[in-house]
Automatic annotation (TrEMBL):
Belongs to the class-I aminoacyl-tRNA synthetase family. It catalyses: tRNA(Tyr) + L-tyrosine + ATP = L-tyrosyl-tRNA(Tyr) + AMP + diphosphate + H(+). It comes from Candidatus Portnoybacteria bacterium CG_4_9_14_3_um_filter_43_11. This is Tyrosine--tRNA ligase. It is an enzyme of class 6 (ligase).
């Protein structure tokens, strides 16, 4: 497939939204600049699911264009539990549980991503930087967001209507996910529509 077709595939196939804009990303892709991008996977189960194949394929499309891709294992965020689309708090998981769950993720992802070629995909774990954060670091990070911004989320509005609890650690999940991008110094994040709030 020629480069133009590859660029169009990256921009359009299986893509609903691009932030800040499709035009901006297209301009960067045509410029020849090599991007560093990632997608995160919280190991809440022992196997990747079919929905993960969509984001893995998108990473692979970027990889074929020569961009640096990272498969991020959310071993830290997996312990918090993503509140997205949940009518109640997720059951918290231990570090041992998330590490055990993630054990086979690379071999499963290797059916789509190339971890050995001339431009190998990397696997990183977000505990590598999140474990080093101090409480004051967390306060500094949290000071960039308001409770109102968090409460905008539909599932939190539903819980309020049904008088169900919203726990503070659930507010910290999008902060931890946002910090992943900063810690890895990436240009772009790939994710499903359900992750839009966490990614912005």
């Amino acid at each position: 497939m020629d480069k133009e077709k590859q660029i169009q595939e990256v921009l359009n196939r299986g893509v609903e939204n691009i932030y800040p804009s499709r035009q901006e990303l297209e301009k960067i892709l045509r410029s020849g600049k090599k991007l560093k991008l990632y997608c995160g996977y919280d190991p809440t189960a022992t196997r990747l699911h079919i929905g993960n194949a969509i984001t893995l394929r998108k990473l692979a499309q970027f990889q074929k264009l020569g961009h640096k891709v990272i498969m991020l294992i959310g071993d830290f965020t997996g312990m918090i539990g993503d509140p997205t689309d949940k009518t109640e708090a997720r059951k918290k998981m231990t570090r041992d549980q998330v590490l055990k769950n993630s054990k086979n993720y690379q071999s499963q992802a290797a059916k789509i991503l190339d971890f050995k070629g001339s431009n190998p995909a990397k696997i990183l774990y977000n505990s590598d930087w999140n474990d080093k954060l101090t409480f004051i670091d967390l306060i500094e990070l949290a000071s960039n967001f308001t409770v109102g911004q968090m409460l905008v989320r539909d599932m939190f509005q539903e819980r309020i209507k049904k008088d169900k609890p919203i726990y503070l650690h659930e507010f910290l999940y999008p902060l931890a996910q946002a910090y992943d991008s900063v810690a890895m110094n990436v240009d772009l994040e790939v994710g499903g529509n359900d992750q839009t709030f966490n990614m912005l």
